Amino acid sequence: MAKKVFVSYKYKDEKVAKIQDFYYEEVDGVMKFNYRKTRVRDYVDRIQEKIGADNINLGEKDGESLEDFSNQQIESALKKRIRQCSITIVLISKGMKTMESEKEQWIPWEISYSLRVVPTGGNTKQRNAILGVVLPDENGNYDWYYTSNPYCNSITHHTGQLFKILKDNMFNILEKEFRECNGSKIHIKDEPSFIKTVKWGVFMNGNSYGYYLDKAIEIKEDESSYDIHINLD
User: Fold this and answer.
1) Separation of alpha carbons 91 and 44, rounded Å
2) Please, what is the angle between helix 208-221 and helix 40-51, to 10°?
């Protein structure tokens, strides 16, 4: 795979479907395993297995808080990782938001920087394509974010569950087109959002991940068609 991918995620979020319930650790020189709940970091491991760890740069680490870092440390630890990548995958999970200001949380900062065009000496950092991969909740369901309406043949995205910078870059196409059904307006453009989303199960099915990464790049190359928001409020 030629594309380098940055993955933004909430490390400790456990409001996700179980895919792993044990982990190995060394105790007195012996490898043993302990049980624990699945968290989003376990999904990152699956992406690394699928895409290849060498093709991925990772965001948040366990126990790191953005406010604990100086600007220089962020530059060293994070900005370089994002600049090396052409695509940012954000794992959208039910418990990714906390009560802290969005400016103090990793995911909004990583998305904001991914969206920026930043001069860096002779090598300008270009805007990354961004793909949202929606994770199933504790019950294995996606309806915490997606709601299907068979009568209107439509799907509602509950963007109010998201960080504002994610919400602002969805359904943000400049030339909007709608159809009406049962009193609701439904987008009919093929790609109405700069940040496209896909269910985890679909993304990870066979080689489908390649299609969705290419689609994110295709949308990014048409960035002038979207009202892109880069700032954290």
Assistant:
1) 8
2) 90
What is the gyration radius of the CA atoms in the chain, in angstroms? Answer: 18
Amino acid at site 59? G
CA distance 9 to 64: 12
Distance CA 86, CA 116 (A): 12
| The residue type at 141 | N
Measuring CA to CA, how many Å separate 53 from each of 5, 7, 45, 46?
A: 10, 11, 9, 10
Place of tokens 């949380």: 105
Q: How many angstroms separate the CA atoms of 101 and 92, rounded? A: 18
Instruction: Determine the residue type at 8.
Output: S
Largest CA distance in the chain: 66
E strands within 9-61? 22-27, 30-35, 56-58
Chain mean position to CA 141: 18
Please give the single-letter amino acid code of residue 46: R
Contacts of residue 41, Cβ cutoff 8 Å, sequence gap at least 6: 9, 11, 12, 62
Q: Which two tokens stand for residue 159?
A: 């963007």
Secondary structure (DSSP) of 196-211:
EEEEHHHHTSTTHHHH
pLDDT tens digits in sequence order for the chain, 233 residues long = 567 999 999 988 999 998 866 666 677 777 666 666 888 989 999 999 999 888 888 776 655 555 566 666 666 678 888 988 999 999 999 999 888 888 878 899 899 999 998 887 777 888 999 999 999 999 999 999 999 999 999 999 999 999 999 999 999 999 999 999 988 899 999 999 999 999 999 999 999 999 999 999 999 999 999 999 999 87
